[in-house]
Amino acid sequence: MPPKKKSIVPSQATQEVSDEEMDEDDNMGSQSSQALLSDNDRRTLAGHVVNYMLVADCKKVPVKRSEINKGVLKEHSKQFNNVMAEVTRILSKVYGYRVVDLEKGQYILVNNMSPTLRDHDVFPATRSRNDAATMGLVTAILAGIFMSGELMQEGPMREYMKKLRIDIDSKDPHAIFGNVNKLIMQDLVKQCYLSISFDKSTDPPSKEFRWGPRAHVEISKKHMLELVCKIYGDDMRPEQWASQWKVVQREAAESAGTS
């Protein structure tokens, strides 16, 4: 009696398709089905994707590749790279935005104009007073993290917020920011301004706050350090913050190497 054949179940790793493989499939699909998508159709689809991304940018939420395929491209998802090339061109030429692929197929829009350092933040112009206030808080949080060695533990973060007269644990909504705990722990993480991990060496594990991928793309650490010096006054210079200045120099060198 012949031995039974073992059923082979693909592992999760073999079932998952990497972004690189998806790109290869898209390139092959774009080449094989180019005739199926006219220039006019491509521009129309690109316009829909542009609108989709502009709406998402108002909420400061990254757009996922899968969302674009499912919600906009649909049966033309194989044309993703082809359409996104036109999307990138439109957003740059018409709206002045740069499309940035953060990680894992998540896209955000960044203003092509260099951010102007103002008295209270390091972000490009915001859309309303509430937006400006929120961005001011985000700037304060990111500045605190940067000046703490690019990582801030949960305890120091709570104390830092109290110095700003903000109680993260308060059940009463803040007059300007509403539910501050949700804003910091959820919204800013979802918007990729903050990255939160857990220090498992403590009991119980405590949160660790770092800059999120959007913050790294949108904000110059040099501008952030200049802002801190401006707050301190007394002719404080960026070079006087030794460790932070090293980070600024490293960022400048990396930027020069990729330009």
UniProtKB/TrEMBL annotation:
The lineage of its organism: Eukaryota, Metazoa, Ecdysozoa, Arthropoda, Crustacea. SMART domains: MAGE. Residues 46-235 form the MAGE domain. This is MAGE domain-containing protein. Signal peptide: none annotated. It comes from the Eukaryota. Coiled coil: none annotated. Residues 28-37 have a biased composition (Polar residues). Residues 17-27 have a biased composition (Acidic residues). Pfam families: MAGE. InterPro entries: MAGE, MAGE_WH1, MAGE_WH2, MHD_dom. Residues 1-40 are annotated as: Disordered. PROSITE patterns: MAGE (PS50838). GO terms for cellular component: nucleus. PANTHER family: MELANOMA-ASSOCIATED ANTIGEN MAGE ANTIGEN, NSE3 HOMOLOG, SMC5-SMC6 COMPLEX COMPONENT.
